[in-house]
Amino acid sequence: MSQHSGNDSNVENDICEEFETAWNLEQHPKIEHFLGRVASTDRERLLVRLMRLEFGLCDRSGVAFPWDEFEQRFPDHVDQLREFQRDHALTVAGEVPRGSTAFVSSEDDSDASLKWGRLGDYKLISQIGRGGMGIVYKARHVELDRLFAIKVLTVATSLEPSARSRFQIEAKAAAQLDHPLFVQVYAFGIQEGTYYYAMQYINGGNVSELIRDIRDHRSQSGDTVQTGSSRGSTKVGSSVRSSNPGSTGSLDLLEAASGKHPTTSRKYLEAFARIGIQVSEALHYAHVMGIVHRDIKPSNLLVDPNGEVFISDFGLARVQGESELTLPGNIVGTLRYMSPEQAYAQRIVVDHRTDVFSLGATLYELLLLRYAFDGRNKAEILRQIAFHDPTPPRKIDARIPEDLETIVLKCLSLIHI
To answer: Could you tell me the sign of the dihedral formed by the alpha carbons of 118, 122, 125, 126, in that order?
Structure first.
């Protein structure tokens, strides 16, 4: 096995990405197998990163983190593991850990204002998410006694001028979109070098979690797919041909996640179509406003308890009139949901069509409970996105309506490049 020498963060990032892909594919990767791929001086740092990564994957998937097993495998890190465990318990209890921020943020993310548990007029309560540049906290406005979500730029990231500019563009892009399906941004602030902005708090989960729950119930119920003929195919009625942003379009999807409706039932398919229409219209509004999201994926579609869907996270958005902060040749987006233009990392501006493609990949997964591009590693996934169409949905399950298959595949067409 080849060994890479010091301070090569790109190598470590690739290793972490490979580990995450293997974990998501249920290949049960072992951290120990990856450590030999970096120089001995870098192994401690990589070990901590992979431990954090595995904890986060377990936490997001609802899998119990094997504390006892890790203490046996990494006896020299018992104290650190116990510190991680204590901080996680505080976070679950609704408190922001003070001092060490292990697993709540990266090792260099601690900041005085976060230790105080307050940013500006907002009292931080608990971590609820993490993006490419920042951490999202549930918070309460002290004077208004109202819940908000606060996104904080990590300290390490804020040291880079381009990252600070990108964070401000993110807040500005979201704030410009006065549409009920976009998470609203209300305020931007800087406190003693800590950049943050306040946005609408959505009390719920996201479509990625919804897909996982539906997949689990489908597996438990023994629901099988039909291939070949189109017998049993459901027609999608006129009730979904016009959208209403105020409707409970995904309520039946929430019920499906609880096992009430199979994914090929009329109610599920109509709810699925409603979501597709609403998100499409919201993205069209953003595109007319000169904003391209560039990271549409299941985890960026939030779902509240009423089944309403909201588009979040403009961390990679491109705003018309703003300078491009992404270096030419860099891949922008999330691996399984990026468009061919993003996968190519071409030296061209990625336009609104990339959001259409990413929405197609998201809808494909919501419809079939499997990835549109299911490669085993980064190179294979990029190759599939760039050169191959995904398997037509009705070849996987003949009960899927032809019109929904046509729409999803049209979004994923390579011809749009």
So the answer is: negative
